[in-house]
Design a protein that fits this description.
It is a single chain. Helices cover 68% and strands 0% of the residues. By secondary structure, the protein is mainly α. The chain folds into two domains: 2-32, no CATH class; 41-137, no CATH class. The two termini are 30 Å apart. 19% of the residues are buried.
């Protein structure tokens, strides 16, 4: 908690700390007393997890398309379905499965192409199909 000394108490400041029960408890107390506004913690976790998973791709060309898919297809659709309510754990897990499938597709299917050619070859439709296939057969690791 020393990392918070001298900083403004915000969700972002807490997000920068190592994840754990202490940080989550402090966040819940700060929300309960009105110091922090309430937010959808499941969606926030999904966003942080997505950034981490995509950053694991060694080639920036392999990051761009899954990032677009994750943000503009998976996360946006989930927010639309939620209609202002909070995401559940299971909804976030399902979204993670789709994103993992897209990242795996990029790693396995088109690892040797130059970035520009890779972007032209792998369409969003192909990523959606790969995510659907992985989800339907249940081969995506958690």
């Amino acid at each position: 908690m020393r990392e918070l000394a001298g900083k403004e108490l915000t969700h972002r400041a807490l997000d920068e700390l190592a994840a754990g029960k202490t940080v989550e408890h402090l966040r819940s107390v700060l929300v309960a007393i009105g110091t922090l506004r309430e937010r959808d913690e499941q969606m926030s976790r999904l966003e942080r997890w997505t950034a981490w998973v995509i950053a694991e791709c060694p080639d920036p060309g392999q990051q761009q398309l899954p990032h677009r898919y994750a943000v503009w297809h998976v996360t946006r659709r989930l927010r639309a379905r939620l209609g202002g309510s909070h995401a559940t754990h299971n909804q976030v897990v399902a979204a993670q499965r789709h994103i993992k499938a897209a990242v795996a597709y990029m790693r396995c299917r088109i690892p040797a192409l130059p970035s520009a050619q890779r972007a032209a070859t792998a369409s969003m439709a192909a990523l959606r199909a790969a995510a659907r296939d992985q989800h339907s057969i249940g081969h995506v690791d958690h």
